[in-house]
Amino acid sequence: MPWSITEIHPLLIHFPIALFSTGLLFDISSYVLEKDELETAGFYTMFVGLISSFFAIISGMIAFFEIGSISDIFHFHHGLIQLSATIFLSILFGVRIKYDVDIRFDGMKKNIYFLLHSLSVGILFYGSHLGAKVAGRILENN
Where exactly are the structural domains of the chain? Predict the structure, then answer.
């Protein structure tokens, strides 16, 4: 096999990072510009971000188990943070579907949703940063 999962995983991780952050940008733009089309774009971008996260997480787990064991999982902060952020974004997506009208027309609920969505994307970025450090793409200054 010409490629291993450890070479494919770094290619897959960029999709959820880009999609979740772009979805958030669409949502904020929708709010500021009062354009429903942008809110719809944010919804579908978040949905595709969740789908792409599945593949990024699975490839990351396979890559992890190629070099580590289940007993090492709690030392694997990057993976745990990414998994937590994705679970939280999944819950937010469910809330978005179930309480769409409430979030859309209640300013306080919309602000709380935006805050939690922004926090989740920030956590995803931090986990991505840790992953880049683990992969050696970011060098530490000593």
Answer: 5-134
